[in-house]
């Protein structure tokens, strides 16, 4: 037994080192796991914050997408154009059926009649029908509607170009005789005409007069038309500069930039209707804008 407990200096140092290693290992065993657990907690907390930030980004992205969708305003379905029908989700066949029906000088006066004429699906009709805006006379009684139709027919007898009065020399008193044009509207027509030296360029400019509905404009055109149009210098669409384009009504610098950009991509416009493809182009005013352009 004595031989087992007698050590040299080197052996004692070794035993001391072994004890030191054991004590150090115990310390690591007790303290290091606590350090790792705290780190794990911090990581979990950061992960939760990251998830919350991602959800906020997703919600902002959804709001942006919703805001970028085109807004639909109330409209008369009788005047749906090819472009308007396309934006509403109608097929070419459905749009053509409506145009063919209107070509027979008939009017769509209800949601059910619109579906019967165009044969649009129930799902699409449910989306777009809340925006239909029919003339007030459509909701009148049958007897009132019949009386209105008879009065309307009397005012819409076709006249030749020679029989019509020149819109650029017509007086407010003459315009007031048109059914639906009162004293205020007749004065507005004359006032708008007098803003330009030479008057109207074409009949389409009647749509620029505040308060004139499409139906009233049609009745005005039955008795009046522009015979002496205002002389203007048209701009060549495929060579016009941005400064020339912004001189046209409803075209600002941003739209002019988009027009030139689209013109470059297309290697020149082939028709004025191709302007409908330009970003942010005022589609409803294309007929007015076309008065100042040529190819």
From TrEMBL:
<dbReference type="Pfam" id="PF12836">
    <property type="entry name" value="HHH_3"/>
</dbReference>
<keyword id="KW-1133">Transmembrane helix</keyword>
<dbReference type="InterPro" id="IPR051675">
    <property type="entry name" value="Endo/Exo/Phosphatase_dom_1"/>
</dbReference>
<protein>
    <submittedName>
        <fullName>DNA uptake protein ComE</fullName>
    </submittedName>
</protein>
<feature type="transmembrane region" description="Helical">
    <location>
        <begin position="12"/>
        <end position="32"/>
    </location>
</feature>
<dbReference type="GO" id="GO:0015628">
    <property type="term" value="P:protein secretion by the type II secretion system"/>
</dbReference>
<dbReference type="GO" id="GO:0015627">
    <property type="term" value="C:type II protein secretion system complex"/>
</dbReference>
<keyword id="KW-0812">Transmembrane</keyword>
<dbReference type="InterPro" id="IPR010994">
    <property type="entry name" value="RuvA_2-like"/>
</dbReference>
<keyword id="KW-0472">Membrane</keyword>
